[in-house]
Write a structure and sequence with these properties.
Length: 56
């Protein structure tokens, strides 16, 4: 199942995202999906690190 998500951006944010996606030869959709996935992965890795440090 596919879900549509909307973002509220000001003109400057929209321009930045579109220009960055173009520079990376990517679509805005692909860029946002990748960015969110990477953020989640980084946060989960940090949580695992913090948990491991608390156990020692």
């Amino acid at each position: 199942m596919r879900v549509k998500v909307s973002l509220h951006l000001d003109d400057k944010e929209e321009r930045l995202i579109k220009e960055y996606a173009k520079a990376k030869n990517s679509s805005v959709n692909a860029l946002i999906k990748l960015s969110v996935s990477e953020k989640i992965e980084a946060d989960l890795n940090l949580e695992l690190y913090d948990k491991a440090m608390q156990e020692h």
